[in-house]
């Protein structure tokens, strides 16, 4: 059996729902069905019963799960231990980030790390997508990410905070909020709102763009955009307002748009994160360096350079 077949079977045993299984594995429900049918054809019997009330395991399916789950876990642990032994403290560490300030900070940490560890190299490999910023970890394209919190995914370790900043409101120049000089979350109920597209149930989006204001008024997400640049363009065109991190605003200043601090916005911090099942001594050493270095503070109005806190 292929690894994807095994993982699909075991996740479906837990979820007992094709849609939730597909969402968790980031594949289509049709692909889940295809993989399960492939397993059942190989075994020669049904492992699941499907009816209008839902999905249940057959007796054979339960037996298969009991025997397969620990074996699969054992194999995964052996593979990861072997990977860690191969990497040791020398090797290449792949870093990803969301937000330019996070990327610049990682570059500085990488320079210090390589100076200390002559046998190791650190490579900044990619900038994550706003709508799905943990994908590089899931797809094993990065070993560590520096991303804004919160992060609540299973199997992901949240390490030290590397950046603290404020949350801003992006509005057209001349907008009453810009003239006022500050914003509140209540303003989101009075204007069309631009928000990053992604999973509509994402806790991460809800953290920065709540469903309701503190007073309980509903916030309508009028425009869903696939990129930060698209959102900035809509705001500049007077089509709406939106929340934005200070580090995003710092590198997206244009005529026609203004950024104002949100007085009652949530605290904003970025941290290093990595997969628990792929943790190596190389990762732990880099994390210790970041923790000793401490977070940088990005004030607004932002200076050209991100500065470290003093005192």
What's the structural blueprint in terms of helices and strands?
Layout: H1 3-15, H2 18-25, H3 29-43, E1 48-51, E2 54-57, H4 59-87, E3 91-97, H5 100-116, E4 120-127, H6 135-138, E5 144-148, E6 156-165, E7 167-172, H7 176-180, E8 193-196, H8 203-208, E9 221-225, H9 228-236, E10 242-245, H10 246-250, E11 257-261, E12 268-275, H11 281-293, E13 296-297
Radius of gyration: 23 Å
Number of contiguous helices: 11
Mean pLDDT score: 87
Order of helices and strands: HHHEEHEHEHEEEHEHEHEHEEHE
The end-to-end distance, rounded to whole angstroms, is 58 Å
Helix percent reads 25-40%
Tell me the number of strands: 13
Strand order of the largest sheet: 4-3-5-12-6-13
Percent of sequence in beta strands = 15-25%
Task: Provide structural commentary.
- It is a single chain.
- The protein is of the alpha/beta class.
- The chain has helices at 3-15, 18-25, 29-43, 59-87, 100-116, 135-138, 176-180, 203-208, 228-236, 246-250, 281-293, and strands spanning 48-51, 54-57, 91-97, 120-127, 144-148, 156-165, 167-172, 193-196, 221-225, 242-245, 257-261, 268-275, 296-297.
- The strands form four sheets. It has a six-stranded mixed sheet with strand order 4-3-5-12-6-13. A three-stranded antiparallel sheet has the order 10-7-11. A two-stranded antiparallel sheet has the order 1-2.
- Helix 5 links the parallel strand 3 and strand 4 (120-127).
- Helix 1 (3-15) packs across helix 2, helix 1 crosses helix 3 (29-43) and helix 2 crosses helix 3.
- The longest helix has 29 residues, at 59-87.
- 31% of the residues are buried.
